[in-house]
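Annotated sample (chain length 150).
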Amino acid sequence: MTDLDDIDHRILRALSRDGRLSNLALSEIVGLSPSACLRRVQALERTGVIKGYRAVLSGEKTGKAFTAYITVGLNQHTKPAQEAFERAMRAAPQVRECHNITGAVEYLLRVEAADLAAYKHFHTEILGSLPQVNTLTTYVVMGSPKDERA
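Output written by the structure step:
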C-alpha cells in the first residue's frame, strides 16, 4: 500500500472532481508549486494510485438514459462457471460495471440501455440465455442524487 499524505489526498480529491484540471490550476488548489505538484501527480500515476482518467458521459445525450442494477446468482459455484459469466459480461456493451460480491448472490451489474425495451432485450436475450445464471433481480435507477463515479 502506498503511504499518502494530506497533499496527496487533496490532489486526488481535486482530480476526482475534475480530471481535466491543468497542473497550474491543481497546484493552486493544493498549495504547491507547479513543479512539485506535477512530481506528485506523476508519482501517483507511476505507483498506480491514479489508474487513469475518464470522461463522464450523459446517458440522455448518448442514448443510454435507462440505468439498472442487477443482482445475479449463479447456479454453479465453480471457477469455470464464474469465468464464463465474466467473459459474457465483458463482451456485453450494456454492462458498464460487473462486480463479484459477497452475500446471497455472486454478482452486481450496472447496466445502461436506451430504454426499457432495450433493457428487456438484454435481460432476456443475453442474461437469460446464459446457462450459469440462476437468479436475476433488477433495480431500476429512478434518479441519482449523488454519483461520484468518474
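Annotation: The chain has six helices and four strands.
Annotation: The mean pLDDT is 94.
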